[in-house]
Amino acid sequence: MSDPTDPQSGNVDPPDRRRTRRIGVLGGTFDPPHIGHLVTAVNVRYGLGLDVVLMVVANVPWQKVDDRQISPATDRLAMVRAAVVDDEGIEASDIEIRRGGPSYSVDTLEALHAEDPDAELFLILGADAAVGLDTWERAEDLASLATIVVVDRPGSVGETPRRFPVVRVEVPRLEVSSTDLRLRIRDGRPTRYLLPPGVSELIAARKLYCCER
Ligand code: ATP
Ligand code: MG
């Protein structure tokens, strides 16, 4: 008997009968991307049966611009691409960089919805990011565009504002942050096993975080 899932058999469903795509959106500055981001992406994808998790690189992260020097978006995108190179189902997205200006998740979710109106969207946040949801641009629209998914993050204090319905997914708790990694690189302390090797190579090649450029 022919296998209905085998593309060779000619029995592949026509596009209009394909099931809804389930797309996760993990936004961030990714300056640099680290194992905390990747472990989150991989485990939420598995836990919720998502087709893909997009690691969406913020163009101008409006919450951070006043605090410190952010690496150029092109460098952060290159690092995320290097981080996900071996991962089926995890992709780097430059949608916010192409859009330009300040990066609001609500605009990104609307753009993804416009691209594929049938897709189901999942906005993935660490607990520390979820605490501030109330302050996000058009926060009231987020929950109607996407299911909000929150993962624990060691050291995070505070609660997700109650008005946001959230789904929680258990992921291994890793006390890793880009802030700590930037300091490690600056000070010459080890980052091995905290950063994917391709990311470390790019940081060295582009002299990020350590030297005057
Ligand atoms: P920074 O220290 O510069 O703020 P970061 O490590 O928090 O960097 P971001 O790019 O700010 O990384 O985070 C993007 C998203 O990933 C946020 O939703 C954040 O909560 C989540 N995230 C980052 N690190 C972890 C981690 N170790 N465990 C779970 N979620 C994380
Ligand atoms: Mg952060």
Could you characterize what this model shows?
The protein is an alpha/beta fold. It has one domain: HUPs (Rossmann fold, 3-Layer(aba) Sandwich), CATH 3.40.50. Helices cover 34% and strands 15% of the residues. It has eight helices and six strands; from the N terminus they run E-H-E-H-E-H-H-E-H-H-E-E-H-H. It has helices at 35-48, 73-83, 95-99, 105-115, 127-131, 139-145, 178-187, 197-206, and strands at 22-28, 52-57, 90-93, 120-126, 147-151, 166-168. It has a six-stranded parallel β-sheet, sandwiched between helices. Helix 2 (73-83) links the parallel strand 2 and strand 3. Helix 2 (73-83) runs antiparallel to helix 8 and helix 4 runs parallel beside helix 6 (139-145). The radius of gyration is 18 Å and the shape is globular. The protein starts with 21 loop residues before the first strand and ends in a 7-residue tail after the last helix. Mean pLDDT is 91; it is low at 1-5. The site of adenosine-5'-triphosphate has 18 residues, from helix 1, strand 4, helix 5 and helix 7.
